[in-house]
Amino acid sequence: MLALVLRKLFRAALTVWLTVSFVFIVLRLSGDPAQIILPINLVTPEVEAALRHKWGLDQPLIVQYLDYVANVFRGDFGFSFRDGRPAVSLVLASLPNTLALMVVAVPLTICTGIAIGVLAALRRGRLTDRAIMLTAVTAFSVPNFFLGILTIIVFAVSLHWLPTGGTGSIRHVVLPVLCLSAAWIGIFARFTRGATIDVLGQPFVTGLRGRGIPQMAIIRAHILPNGMIPTLTVFGMYIGSLISGSIIVESLFAWPGVGHLLVESVFSRDLAVVQAIILLASLMMVTANLLVDLSYGWLDPRIRDLEIASRVL
Amino acid sequence: MTWHESNLGAVRAYEPLRRLWARQSVRWRATRFAPLSALALAWLILLLISALLDSLLSSPDAISMDLRARLRPPLLFGGNWAHILGTDDLGQDILARLLLSVRTSLLVALVGSGLGALLGTTLGFIAAHFRGWIEESVQMLVDLQAAMPFTIIALALLAFFGNSFGLFLVIMGIYGWERYARLARSLALSALGQGYTLAVRSYGAGFLRLYGRHVLPNVAGPLIVNMILNFSEVILLESALSFLGLGVQPPLSSLGTMVGYGRTYVTTAWWIAVIPGVVIVLTVLSLSILGDRMQDRLNPANRSCR
Which CATH architecture has domain B35-304? Predict the structure, then answer.
């Protein structure tokens, strides 16, 4: 078990390192930041040289890279080219806003998705099932930017029920959360339905029914725990995609979170901030996958064995 | 005999009957006419035809500006026959722009999913064929790709390198290659265990001949299903990036570009954003419905997993 955990930890760290290195090198190759940051009328060779020296851009790429990695381990992610503040403090300042959306969106998505997925499985083939599944497929066919625009048109522009964007009250949270969650509710519902149907087909469920155990008790104590194990994979993907998902939603609703910061930084080519956000997103994805992998072993004793684990995961 | 044992006996007696019924119903379902899939197919054919016939349908002056006819609503919302889907703020006909955008979006999605299929399938076959360290390194690449925040990296690359259509297509092609690779590897591994590959190999067929002529046609089904699903994902990613202004650039226009453009006019002219958005939704929805149906037909035992 320990060997398995260590191996997975090593691979997770390797993934983050490779991602960060790839991004660092490719983005440095994209062009000289000094020429982009400076206003046109200020570009003189001396100013450019001074700037390059200040940011360490006059060093060879390999030196810059080693410096960067060493600094990252010290918690220094470089400085924003735009206002000179540390990149990490910019990211940390916007993180609470993103987390505020997540705190609402994640439980909502998981509970709703699993609940309607189980319902669809229990009503398999009937009208309820078909309606739920059609809604689920539609939900993840609507891109979140379009859902955002539609909800803005309907609820903000026409009905005046909710604000079009910004922060401040609980009413500002409704539309962003809806746009963040809709597609994933559909994915969770679909996956839970499949997993539940698989469990429902197993002989032990027929056995429990035959013994006269009430339906609700079977669902709660037997079907849900068994059906949730495959759903964990989706959960890992979901947590990993939270930051990518927030990019469009936050910039559409002018929500000052990490996604919004990323779009701003990307357009102003603010290297350090972009790299810090990619590192954060990569860490989140890898951690989510790691936790999911490990909890498989914890929840399903059959996977605990290293042999089996390496085959299944 | 305790009570539950007798019940189990009754359950066992009922089991063959239930299985027979289940099999019957699966067969009946699989061959039934599905109106939803028919509609989905009809929509995709319509889209394809309009993309192909675009140059015939709309003359160059169709997207010309007509400043006297700005922000006209669509026909059913108070507009007229001259502009069935209304006009934008420059008086350009939405229908004409839509046809051009559909063509770009379909082209990007086709090239993107095609590149991904080529790259992923080849690497998957290579991994299955050579095993050893080659397989290990392909698996490493697959895992790395799957654990990367790809959307964010694509966003950064497009912004930092400035927008070139070529780079955009390459990024769309890389997106999702790892699923083709995984699938192709496991399909090839199971094919290599079958008699026909042994026969072909014993005749001395090389890698290309073995996989191109024999393995690929035999395992194409699941790969095509994956390609359909990947196609719709590429459409979604393309339109999201274009919406942010980082994808398809003017003078070209894609469905996502149109939605992004219409974003400014949500209070005055909702149709500019909503019409291309609806086209995206219908297209992705149709692709998912058809992909699911093909998956069911290919693998009826897996029906429950949908």
Answer: Orthogonal Bundle (1.10)
Over its C-alpha atoms, chain A yields an Rg (Å, rounded) of 24
CB atoms within 10 A of CB B18: 11
Q: Is there a contact between A149 and B277 if contact means CB atoms under 8 Å apart? A: yes
Q: Which of A145, A149, A267 sits opposite B240 (nearest CB)?
A: A145
| Cα–Cα distance for residue pair A147/A151, rounded to 1 Å | 6
pLDDT at B300: 56
HSE of B217, CA atoms in CB hemisphere, 13 A: 8
CATH of domain A94-301: 1.10.3720.10
Put simply, the chain A residues between 76 and 115 with a CB less than 8 A from any chain B CB are: none
pTM listed for this prediction: 0.84
Domain locations in chain A as residue ranges: 94-301
Q: Quick check: B285 and A141 CB within 8 A? A: yes
pLDDT given for residue B279 in this prediction: 92
Q: Quick: pLDDT tens for B223-242.
A: 888 898 899 989 999 999 99
pLDDT in tens, A170-198: 788 888 999 999 999 999 998 888 888 88
Measured between CA atoms, how close is B302 to chain A, in angstroms? 10
Interface test with A, best of B14, B39, B143, B148 (most A CBs within 10 A): B148
Note the pLDDT of residue B37: 86
Cβ of A281 under 8 Å from any chain B Cβ?
Answer: yes
Question: Would you list the domain boundaries of chain B?
Answer: 1-32, 35-304
B151: closest chain A residue by CA: A244
**Taking the CB of residue B97, how many other CB atoms lie within 10 A of it?**
23
Which residue positions in chain B have pLDDT lower than 50?
Answer: 1-28, 30-31, 302-306
Torsion of CA B277, B275, A101, A186, to 10 degrees: -50
